[in-house]
């Protein structure tokens, strides 16, 4: 701060508070709705203060779900989401570490070609090639399986670039010393490179976990068996009831539960989150 | 391309290390993309028994189709509005946080978490708020004499998806703007203050120009986001309706291919979208390479 201007400081805080209110309000409303009973929504306006049904709504959604909407209990879907997000994050990090290692520490024919093939994945988001990708997964018999849900999303150009950037900053002397001491490439990777990459791996894990958790279109296409539903896609099924208004209090309880895990990750690992976000996108 | 001065001599090992990444990429990215390009030049008979090669007929028909052109227009309106709204709001918030000394960590925490909310959940949150029968926003708007109903009114529907999509993107832009602002040297603004420039003048003549790399980067990222990552928001709020009013390109590909089962047209649309992503990525990387040089 260069100078003291009380009015401007007041304005600054005002802007920030309004900003926070705008950001928080939709979620507050959802939380309030999730604490009411079914009848409270018939009056024509959503309630603005929490009601008494908090525990009951959440218990009902977690253990039973809404069978009429074809939604399994939420704990199954939350479990699926957790498994899928972790597989995607770990998978992306693992294959990206290996390929970045190959690209930086080895010289071999077609190295540039391999780099470009990985680079191209940046330009082919799932949304623009859904039908042929769906067909490949269907032909391989991977519909309704964790493999089908995760494997097609696991290639990652950004993670590969991040590790490549990082590996290039590692001093050559480190590797020379390791080689003098008789370490082969795999030992060097395991005992020196991996420990050095720990912070980068953690930061990337946060970002990729969120990426995996919020996937919607892909799980929607490849799962028809409710045992494999993820929570993010399951919510849409809950909300889209054919006969009139959805059961708002239960839908919103599900929304809160679907939002909570990744949001908690961001809040409690904020430093890693910011590092991961700002560095992968550069 | 850069490598290490000293490298490992192994011949086979690098291929093994690259194999998993390349296998996934080839099977689930490159091959489907090639298939999309191929079937965009073909027509399949109604029973799927035989396909005929028809050159650019799918594209010709696509660009003569008024619903597709409508969708292109809607996408442009949507992408430009989301980009402007999300970027201006987050720049304002970032500049404010940058002025605050003690409480900036708290504000940052409270502003960044929407990044982790799934687009489809964002859609449901805003759909709930703007629900014509019980939502709070239509209730307040009725007080102002506006009869909100995004199920009937196309411009209401467009506004709803723009607001929802911008809300989600604020946290992302905010973090990048804060990072950008922190790299603006304090000495420059101090010098300008000594020369008598007020806070607004300092912002527009010093801080904002120095922020232009960040702004440009975010411009591309936001257009990309609005065009491709908002599928869930559209699906949860309006499903492209009413009367195609919010049927943006990425939603139309899905609707035509999976619900309408028009494979040829959907493939042609996929190819057009791929070209757009390629163009955006190329712009982004060209610019980043230039920035690295100075």
Q: What level of helicity do the residues of chain A show?
A: 55-70%
Strand count, sense and barrel status of the largest sheet of chain B are: 2 strands, antiparallel
Strand content of chain B: under 5%
In the CATH scheme, the class of the domain at 74-241 and 260-280 in chain A would be Mainly Alpha
CATH topology of the domain at 74-241 and 260-280 in chain A: MetI-like fold
- Specify the overall morphology of chain A: globular
What's the β-strand tally of chain B? 2
Number of helices of chain B: 13
Beta-strand share of residues of chain A? under 5%
Rg of chain A, Cα atoms, Å: 24 Å
Terminus-to-terminus distance of chain A: 28 Å
Shape descriptor of chain B reads globular
CATH homologous superfamily annotation of the domain at 74-241 and 260-280 in chain A: MetI-like
Q: Give the overall average pLDDT of chain B.
A: 87
Quaternary organisation of the protein chains: heterodimer
Order of helices and strands of chain B: HEEHHHHHHHHHHHH
Radius of gyration of chain B: 24 Å
> Which class best fits the helix and strand makeup of chain B?
mainly alpha
The CATH topology of chain B: MetI-like fold
Pair of chains with the largest interface and how many residues each contributes: A-B, 106 and 101 residues
Commentary on this structure:
The complex is a heterodimer of chains A (282) and B (294). Chain A is mostly helical and 282 residues long. Helix content of chain A is 68%, strand content 0%. In chain A, helix 3 crosses helix 7 and helix 10 packs across helix 14. The longest helix of chain A has 32 residues. The radius of gyration of chain A is 24 Å and the shape is globular. Chain B has a two-stranded antiparallel ribbon with strand order 1-2. In chain B, a hairpin with a 6-residue loop joins strand 1 and strand 2. Chain B is globular and about 75 Å long. The model of chain B has no long low-confidence stretch (mean pLDDT 87). The chains are: A mainly alpha (282), B mainly alpha (294).
